[in-house]
TrEMBL record:
Pfam assignment, any one: HTH_8
GO biological-process terms attached to the record: phosphorelay signal transduction system; regulation of DNA-templated transcription
GO molecular function, one term: ATP binding
Domain Sigma-54 factor interaction: 144-372
Originating species: Terriglobus albidus
SUPFAM superfamilies attached to this UniProt entry: CheY-like, Homeodomain-like, P-loop containing nucleoside triphosphate hydrolases
This protein's name: Sigma-54-dependent Fis family transcriptional regulator
Modification 4-aspartylphosphate occurs at: D55
Domain Response regulatory: 6-120
Amino acid sequence: MSGVIRIVIIDDNMSSLELLSTALEREGLSIHTANDPREGLELIRSLRPRMVITDLVMPGMTGLEVLRQVMHIDPTIDVLLMTAHYTTETAVEAIRNGAADYLQKPVKIADLRERVRRLLEAAEKRRIASSGSDESGDFHFEGLVAKSEAMWNLFAMVEKVAPHFRSLLIQGPTGSGKDLIARALHERSGLKGKFVVLNCSAVVETLFESELFGHVRGAFTGADRDKTGLFQLADGGTLFLDEIGDMPLNTQAKLLRAIQNQEVMPVGSLHAKRVNVRIVAATHRNLRQAVKEGRFREDFYYRLSMVELTLPPLAARKEDISLLSSFFLRRFAGDFGKKVEGISQRALRVLERYSWPGNVRELEHVVGRACMLTDNVTIDVKDLSENIVGASSEALAGAVDDPGASVLDSQERAVVERILRETNWNQSEAARKLGIGRDALRYKMKKYGLGSRPALSR
């Protein structure tokens, strides 16, 4: 982070102001304080700080009113609210209204410093992402890799809600990384319990109760011993319910009661067991539509979606493709014991033109396959699968192995025809020189009416 970072602290308690400002004093931070919220707002208007830390309950103006004013002045300012009257619901509501975080009083100094450090780092990465600059070189967040502004805004939201949520819904297309966001929420929550996963699409309907709540010996045929359910395994931690849209309606009702009451009844038992579990649910389905069609319980949906996070498809954040490709390549090169050091610019251009219906997971498989098959230190277009190259719009643009060749669309036909002539219309050789597969070459030949070798003139 470059330059001096300004932080404004607002609290009607002078002792608290002194404690907080002293705790945050360090090189690179400029701390400004106000014991009156209106005075604090004037400081904010004149200084335009990176962060505002404000008490929630103050005479004359509440912290929520300060938050609303700050969002009007500059919505990029991070606002951290403090209160002695903490509840999950008010914390989540404050975050929905734009708060960056929510701390309980009396504030623990170590916790305050860590929260401020994380918020400042995340703000800097969002600034870099929005400017397109690569100056930090650090685009990792709890196992996720991205430099797009959309993803760093999502990471910021994860940071905000992780300490507070009780139930949360992640929506996004298949292969976009919903499981990684769920794990990031758990890691950033501070919970000491386990991160437990259930894929709802992989469970037989009759076994859902046993999987979630457990059973006692003799509860049903084949129950020859007691089984601990996933709720109990996740006690003190997070239960991740992947593909929640595939859960049967009757199971949704029982799960809703378990989440509301924080207790489970093992199948065949007469005694409920108390649990303390946070729920993260994920789906690629449109649950609002499923509710309208009667395929998903409305009350269950609203319980899960107290907080909603949406993952964008890879096609909507193509600026991440280069970074993700390099990340996967390093991993696969290590796994395969190969000295593959990078991906050519023309191969990257082909990847960036592809529509990625399988999202990040598909990109991972494509890079893994190319790394496995290549004999060179750099992955090139010829190492990519033919369906990727063939389906990429304008896949030849920039892929021709001829620095003098134009890559304009209007000249693509001339480039293909020239390479075909140079290779005496040998399609395998022409495809190799063009850096594409034979299927992609045939597609271009058909597109431009280059179906056969021209007749020789007499």
